[in-house]
Amino acid sequence: MEDEKPIFETNLPPDRAKKVVEILREVFDPEIPINVYDLGLIRKVVLENGVLKVVMTLTAVGCPVAGNLAQEVGYAIQSAVPEAQDVEVEIDFERPWDPTQMTPRGREMFKAIYGYDIVEQYLAAQQA
Questions:
Q1: Exposed site from 33, 102, 107, 111, fewest CB < 10 Å?
Q2: What pTM was estimated for this model as a whole?
């Protein structure tokens, strides 16, 4: 795998952040069959005073499984950062998700699944 920098804000050492990315690629959004990392849902993963603080968003504000997905992300990340005594996952709706937040890999996955480029379509709709 290419050496990519995480798309989320973090204070974790690079090797630990890379492990977090690998683990997040195993957690899938319930509505779009792409992992939460490549969808661009994870905004921040920081370790402060033994607490791993995660800030994420969802593809849809009214997502009925919001709590479940946040819990799943928390459990997954905790396994990558065993020194964290606790994990807090905050869901951020201040800045809504949009397709431009996807990684290039996520965008390619979306194209492979749905047959069109969601980012191009989104940007075209913004200009209409």
A1: 33
A2: 0.91
